[in-house]
Amino acid sequence: MQAARTIAKSLLATQAVTLNPEQPYTWASGLRSPIYCDNRVTLSSPQDRKLITEEFVKLIHQKYPDVEAIAGVATAGIPQATSVADKLNLPLVYVRPEAKDHGRKNQIEGNLKAGQKVVVIEDLISTGGSSIKAAQALEEAGAKVLSLLAVFSYGLPKAEANFKAANIPYEALSNYDVLIEEAASSGYVTAAQQETLRDWRKDPQSWSDRFTAQV
User: Fold this and answer.
1) Residue 100, pLDDT score
2) Choices 3.40.50.150, 3.40.50.2020, 3.40.50.1000, 3.60.160.10: CATH for 2-214
3) CB count, 10 Å around CB of 60?
């Protein structure tokens, strides 16, 4: 739990995660949300970049000591995966959303061996769709996916259901509940705003629809 709080503080301090319950962000899907996460911002801070790498490495040592390769999910997961692979002195591959339509038409870049035990690194889990797709591509190529690890997760019920259906373990260094608690304790949001943030997480689509109807 302490590690999750430390990561949450880092994400808020670097503005990799920003909160705005009164003027929600519009996601690419069209969903209105009081939270926006862009963990790529942390790459510009050596201190925060190192913190995230070290926490990934600790988690892998503790839970997946038999890992044989690290895979990054393109694009935002690639730099995180590269740092982790360097620390662990392991092979690195990365997974594209789709196979290329030219050249060797690869979806997985790098040398992946059949049967290799892989930990997948992602930057963010929302519904889990792109993360699961990457993990499945690795398994179809003959790898054994031990788990998918992300910097941050919104903790949406839909993600939980999707990962369970795909039978893929996953875990995040920090999550939505921890982050909004940290935001409230630090004065970033008020108690009322914290309740609004909690309400969004229960049903993002309904929350978004209600907000859109009000404006």
Assistant:
1) 66
2) 3.40.50.2020
3) 21
